[in-house]
Design brief:
This protein has 4 domains: 191 residues, Hypothetical protein af1432 (Orthogonal Bundle); 172 residues, P-loop containing nucleotide triphosphate hydrolases (Rossmann fold); 156 residues, Rossmann fold (3-Layer(aba) Sandwich); 82 residues, no CATH class. It contains 30 helices and 24 strands. Helix 1 runs antiparallel to helix 3, helix 3 packs antiparallel against helix 6 and helix 7 crosses helix 11. The protein is α/β, with parallel strands linked by helices. A 7-stranded parallel sheet has the order 5-6-4-7-8-3-9, sandwiched between helices. A 7-stranded mixed sheet has the order 13-14-12-15-16-10-18, with helices on both faces. The protein starts with a strand and ends in an 11-residue tail after the last strand.
Length: 721
C-alpha cells in the first residue's frame, strides 16, 4: 500500500489523510446550527465528512489506476476511480442515515464531474468487480473493505436510491448540504494536490482605516460630497449582525461603493471574506481599481477580480498555482459578476469556494439587474445563505420587490432622493425609428453634451451615423473590444456626444448634461438618469425617454427585456409627462409592485427545482439567455499579436497540467481583445483556434471598424450586451 500513488508526486495514503485533515479543519471552522439547518447533528455530519474525504480516492488503489499513472495505456472505465470510491463510501457508511449515504455516494462519484445524472446512473458491475479484485489486501484492511460483498452493496445501493426517489423527503436544505460538503471535499482535494502538507498563504487584513483615509483624501469640496459623507456616516453608525439580510437603498452618485465597503468593515476579521457582486463585467475593473486605490494594494490575495476575462497578477512564487488560488476565491475581497456568482451557487457544477460563504459578507450591487423570472430561486438561495451565516447587502438605487423584508441600513432613504434632485425626466410619445433619429438631431441643436443609450447594437450604429459630425462623437457597444471601450470611457469627458448600448447604465462613473434613452424597464431608465448631471455640474440635467419601434412595428426594448417588462414600463410612464429625480423612488416602487403582482418570479421553475433536487433543471439556470455566438480575437496591436503567438504555441503542444494553466493565463491576457457575435452557419472566416475566430492585423480593415467594432455579415439585428 505504501507504494501506491494518488498523483505522480503524492502517495495515496498521504493524499487521503491530507484531504481528510483539511476537510475536518474546514468542517470544525464552521459554527453552524447543523441540526436546525440540515436535520442532522454535528457528530453525524462530522462522521459523514470524515468518510467522504477518506473514501474519495480509494479507487486509485486499483492496479489499473496505478498502471495508468506509470504511463501505461489502460481502458478508461477501468482506470476511472470515482465510481468505485463512491461504492466504497456507501459500504463504509452503514451507520449513517440513508439520505446521507446517498448524498455521500454522489459527492464522491461526482467530485471530478457534475450532478447531471444525480442518483440516476447504474454502476457497471463487471468493471467494479475487476477493480475490487485488483485492490491490495492491506488497503482493503485499512479502509474496512475486506468484508464488502460487492454484489450485495450494489443491490443495497439500487434499492436505497429507488426508495429515496419515490418516497424520500427532499428539500432546499438538502441542496445546500450537498454543495457545502462537496465544496469542502473538492477544495481540500485540490489544496492537497498542490500544497500537500503546507497551509495556504495568509490573507491581508481588511482595514477600515484605509477606507476612511481614502475618504479624507476625497474631501468635502461641494454639496454632493457633503451629502456623500452624511450617507457614509450613517452606514458607519449602523450596527449590523452576522447572518442577516440588509438593504442600502440610495440614489446613484452618492458613493454607494465606498458605503458598501464601509458596511463590510463591521465584520472585518481573519475569517471573513467580502464578495462584491456586480451586474456587468465592464464595471468590475473599475470597482477593483477603486478598491486597490482605497486599500493601497494590488495584491490579488487582498482583492481578486473573478470572471472569465479577469487576469490577476500573482508574484512569481505563486504563478504555477494561481489557477487554484483563483478558483478557491483565496482572497480577502472577491469582485465578481452576478452571472459568475449566482451561476456558481445555483448550479449542478462543483463550487470549491462554497464553504467560505457562511463567513462572508455578500454585497449585491445594483441588485435590480437580476431578471424577475429568477427572483424566486435567488430569494430562496439568499435566505438560506443568511441562515448559514452569510451577511447579505442589497445595494441599489432602484430596489426591486426582492427580499422585501431586508433591513434598511439608511434610516430615511427618501431624504437622500429628495436632496439629490439633479435631473428632470421627460417622457416623449411613441416614435418610429426614423422619427426618433430626426428627433435626436433636432434635440442636439442646442449643443448640450448628450449621452444616447439604445437597446440594440443595430439601433446604436444607425444613430451614430445620424449624429456623426455634430461635435465630437464616441461609440460604445459589445462589438467594440474591451480594450477600446475602456480607453473611450477613460476620456469620456472629451466627447460632446456618446452613442452607446446599455454598457454604461450601472456603475460607470460618467456624467452628461442630457441623456436620451429608448424606453426600457423603469429601473434601467433610472440607472441611465444616473449618468446625467451626476455631480451637480449644472442646475438641472435633462433625461428624455421615448418608446421606439422598428420597421416591423416592434419596440426595440422588447427584443432585449421582453414584452412584459417593456409594456409594464410603458403603462407606468404613460401617466406622466415629466418627473423630478426626487420622485424616482416612488416611480420604481410602482414599477416593481406591478412586476411582482403580474409577473412570475419562478417562470423558469428553478426555485421549484432547488426544492426537489432536480439538478438537470437547476443546470438550466442562466442569468443571460444563451446565444449561439462565436468569440472573435481581434489582433489590433503588437501586444495582442505577441500574446496570441504565445497562446498558439502552447495550444499546439501536448496538453499537460502546466501548459493548461499557462493557456488559461494567456487567454485572460487576450480577453481585452475578444468580442462575441452571432454568425451565419455557412460563413467563411479567417483562422480559428480553440473555438475562436482570429482576425489578424493584415485583414483588420475587413473585419473591425475603428469606431463601431466588429463587422460580421449576417450576424442578426439584435445583439444584447
Amino acid at each position: 500500500m505504501d507504494v501506491m500513488r494518488s498523483h505522480p508526486d503524492r502517495k495515496l495514503v498521504d493524499h487521503l489523510n491530507g484531504v481528510k485533515k483539511r476537510s475536518l479543519e474546514k468542517f470544525y471552522s464552521l459554527d453552524l446550527s447543523w441540526k436546525e439547518l440540515f436535520g442532522y447533528g454535528k457528530d453525524v455530519l462530522e462522521k459523514f465528512i470524515l468518510l467522504v474525504s477518506e473514501s474519495h480516492d480509494i479507487g486509485k488503489g486499483t492496479v489499473y489506476f496505478q498502471d495508468y499513472l506509470n504511463g501505461e495505456k489502460v481502458n478508461k472505465s477501468l482506470r476511472n476511480h470515482a465510481l468505485f470510491s463512491a461504492v466504497a463510501f456507501f459500504h463504509r457508511s452503514k451507520e449513517l442515515p440513508e439520505k446521507l449515504r446517498l448524498f455521500g455516494f454522489e459527492i464522491v462519484r461526482k467530485h471530478h464531474g457534475r450532478f447531471d445524472d444525480f442518483l440516476e446512473s447504474d454502476p457497471n458491475k463487471d468493471v467494479l468487480k475487476k477493480q475490487f479484485e485488483s485492490l491490495p489486501f492491506d488497503l482493503l484492511e485499512v479502509y474496512n473493505l475486506v468484508d464488502m460483498d460487492l454484489s450485495d452493496t450494489i443491490e443495497e445501493l439500487r434499492k436505497t436510491k429507488s426508495k429515496f426517489a419515490l418516497l424520500g423527503e427532499k428539500s432546499l436544505s438538502d441542496y445546500f448540504l450537498i454543495h457545502l460538503f462537496m465544496s469542502i471535499l473538492v477544495s481540500s482535494d485540490r489544496e492537497d494536490v498542490v500544497f500537500k502538507d503546507e497551509t495556504l498563504p495568509p490573507l491581508p487584513s481588511y482595514e477600515k482605516e484605509k477606507i476612511l483615509a481614502y475618504r479624507e483624501r476625497l474631501g468635502k469640496k461641494n454639496q454632493i460630497d457633503r451629502l456623500r459623507w452624511e450617507f457614509q456616516e450613517e452606514v458607519l453608525r449602523f450596527q449590523p449582525e452576522r447572518g442577516k439580510i440588509y438593504s442600502i437603498t440610495a440614489p446613484t452618485g452618492i458613493g454607494k461603493t465606498l458605503g458598501n465597503l464601509l458596511f463590510a468593515s463591521h465584520f472585518a476579521d481573519d475569517d471573513t471574506i467580502v464578495i462584491y457582486a456586480l451586474p456587468f463585467i465592464n464595471i468590475i475593473e473599475q470597482t477593483v481599481e477603486k478598491i486597490r486605490e482605497m486599500f493601497e494594494t494590488d495584491d490579488p490575495f487582498f482583492v481578486l477580480p473573478f470572471h472569465h476575462l479577469s487576469n490577476p497578477e500573482y508574484s512569481s512564487k505563486y504563478e504555477e498555482v494561481e489557477d487554484l488560488l483563483i478558483n478557491l476565491w483565496h482572497s480577502r475581497v472577491v469582485v465578481t459578476t452576478f452571472v459568475s456568482l449566482l451561476e456558481s451557487i445555483i448550479t449542478l457544477r462543483k463550487i470549491p469556494f462554497f464553504y467560505k460563504l457562511p463567513k462572508a459578507v455578500l454585497i449585491l450591487d445594483e441588485v435590480q439587474a437580476i431578471p424577475h423570472e429568477y427572483w424566486s430561486a435567488v430569494e430562496k438561495t439568499i435566505r438560506f445563505l443568511s441562515k448559514m451565516g452569510t451577511t447579505v447587502v442589497l445595494s441599489t438605487a432602484t430596489k426591486p420587490s426582492l427580499l422585501k423584508d431586508a433591513q434598511e441600513v439608511v434610516f430615511d432613504k427618501k431624504i437622500y432622493f429628495s436632496r439629490l434632485n439633479r435631473t428632470i425626466l421627460k417622457i416623449e410619445r411613441e416614435m418610429s425609428f426614423e422619427e426618433y433619429k430626426q428627433f435626436i438631431k433636432d434635440t442636439l441643436k442646442d449643443g448640450k453634451r448628450t449621452l444616447i443609450i439604445t437597446n440594440t447594437i443595430k439601433e446604436a450604429e444607425e444613430i451614430y451615423d445620424t449624429v456623426e459630425g455634430i461635435g465630437k462623437v464616441c461609440f460604445l457597444s459589445s462589438r467594440v473590444i474591451p480594450k477600446h471601450r475602456m480607453e473611450i470611457v477613460s476620456k469620456i469627458n472629451e466627447y460632446d456626444i456618446c452613442v452607446t448600448t446599455q454598457v454604461v447604465e450601472a456603475g460607470v462613473d460618467i456624467s452628461f448634461e442630457r441623456v436620451i434613452r429608448d424606453i426600457a424597464p423603469v429601473d434601467s431608465i433610472v440607472q441611465a438618469a444616473g449618468r446625467c448631471n451626476r455631480h451637480f455640474e449644472t442646475k438641472k440635467g435633462e433625461v428624455i425617454v421615448a418608446p421606439v419601434k422598428d420597421k416591423r412595428n416592434v419596440l426595440f426594448s422588447s427584443y432585449v427585456y421582453g414584452r412584459f417588462l417593456t409594456d409594464t414600463a410603458k403603462k407606468i410612464l404613460e401617466n406622466y409627462e415629466t418627473l423630478e429625480e426626487s420622485e424616482f423612488f416612488e416611480l420604481v416602487e410602482r414599477f416593481f409592485d406591478h412586476v411582482n403582482r403580474f409577473g412570475n418570479p419562478d417562470a423558469k421553475k428553478i426555485g421549484e427545482a432547488l426544492e426537489i433536487l432536480n439538478f438537470a433543471k437547476i443546470g438550466q439556470f442562466s442569468l443571460i439567455t444563451p446565444e449561439p455566438t462565436v468569440p472573435f480575437v481581434v489582433l489590433v496591436d503588437e501586444e495582442s499579436e505577441r500574446v496570441f503567438e504565445e497562446f498558439q504555441k502552447f495550444f499546439d503542444k501536448k496538453r499537460t497540467r502546466e501548459s493548461f494553466s499557462i493557456l488559461k493565463k494567456l487567454f485572460r491576457e487576450l480577453s481585452p481583445y475578444i468580442v462575441s457575435a452571432r454568425v451565419k452557419k455557412d460563413a467563411v472566416y479567417p483562422e480559428t483556434i480553440a473555438g475562436m475566430v482570429v482576425i489578424p492585423r493584415n485583414v483588420l480593415d475587413n473585419w473591425y471598424h475603428p469606431i463601431k467594432g466588429l463587422r460580421v455579415e449576417g450576424s442578426g439585428e439584435v445583439i444584447v450586451i
